[in-house]
Amino acid sequence: MEDLGLDPGETAAILLAEGLNADALLIDERRGRSVAAGRGIAVIGTLGILAGAKRAGAVDSVAPIVELLRADGFWLSEALVETLLKGLGEDRSR
To answer: What is the pLDDT along the chain (94 residues), one digit of tens a residue?
Structure first.
């Protein structure tokens, strides 16, 4: 397996996405996203999936899901969360 200087799982995911000519790769870690994008792979993160789910009507609100992720130890930038929620028409009181 090619060494991309990343965690073995991230490396495998990137190489698999390349091998499958995938439309996009779900990856959240900043370095992994950068390497994937640098190799021409479209990337989407967990918040992007949540935004798509809200836009598709699959979930009513993203804010409670974000809070559950955080409670489970998933780190998310406050600025990124605020931008996401504002873009989806949600406020923090929901």
So the answer is: 788 999 999 999 999 999 999 999 999 999 999 999 999 999 999 999 999 999 999 999 999 999 999 999 999 999 999 999 999 999 765 4
Whole-angstrom distance between the N-terminal and C-terminal Cα of the chain?
45
pTM equals 0.80
Domain ranges of the chain: 8-44, 47-87
Q: Distance of alpha carbon 21 from its chain centroid, rounded?
A: 19
Burial (CB < 10 A; 0-12, 13-18, 19+), residue 48, is middle
